[in-house]
């Protein structure tokens, strides 16, 4: 049968021999985008609802209602959930950081045991520590309130606690600018040191907030090679491809130019071809959203500028980028 005329099989089924296809969901899109989710994705990540500020806004005040709904959605469909994220400097309430090292460590312990323990056996992997590495300059670690309050071993501590709370979960270190040569060397150094010390870090998450023109295929491959050399699992955890170049243009159009969508499709084709090459080490590729009507990039890095970074358009129709990703693999029969 001519593949171009075959009904487009769900993306996750097409990629079943390669890696999971995931999407970030939130309390709204879990319902409003349920049809696309069910058809094309076999892993979900909470966009915000499992972050500290959402799940434990006040000491010992846990808000599990929405995360539980997400877990039930995934369990009912037999798909996976990535837990995101336990220890981060953003979206974490100020009370977490007041006091000394012992207090911070105790709050971390209670938080991780409560959250990881609740979803033990259901969340197959956790982003235990998010964005601990510094972007530029000489320091390896970012100057964060965790580092200030607990010292460098806050990272090892978090992984040990998560491992204790669910020994079967795959534990990830997750970061952005992960293909930048300077930063990837630091991420590699950090995770390598942790593993030599026996800390249970099992994977590196490449966020993948990318653009049409960057990072280069060469940097993507070099990063995957470097991280894989540590013997860890890899996931692309937050993939989106902005059609804008940083802060340009300053104001957005209402609709994307068709030419831009074609360039984006070529870019997605290039990226997924690389991911397929690395399927022996990549376990999942998660898009940071489902369709272009709900994307954080509408407000970043320019507030109120429309972006179209995902595989489905604002009306939930497949974009050229979807076709490009789907075309890379034979439909499951
Ligand atoms: C980082 C975090 C994500 C999300 C994005 C922006 O990448 O890891 O949880 O907050 O920023 O949406």
Descriptive account of the structure:
- This protein has one domain (3-326): Alpha-Beta Barrel (TIM Barrel).
- Helices cover 37% and strands 17% of the residues.
- It has twelve helices and nine strands.
- It has helices at 11-14, 29-32, 34-40, 52-55, 65-77, 101-118, 145-150, 154-165, 181-196, 217-228, 258-277, 320-327; strands at 20-25, 43-46, 80-87, 123-130, 170-175, 203-206, 209-211, 233-242, 282-287.
- The chain has an eight-stranded parallel barrel with strand order 1-2-3-4-5-6-8-9, surrounded by five helices.
- Residues 84, 130, 176, 207, 238, 296 line the site of alpha-D-galactopyranose.
Name some characteristics of this structure.
alpha/beta, TIM Barrel, binds alpha-D-galactopyranose, 333 residues, disordered N terminus, eight-stranded parallel β-barrel
State the share of residues found in helices, binned by percent. 25-40%
Strand content: 15-25%
Shape: globular
As for the number of domains, it is 1
The CATH homologous superfamily corresponds to: Glycosidases
Average pLDDT for all residues: 95
Q: Distance between the terminal alpha carbons, to the nearest Å?
A: 12 Å
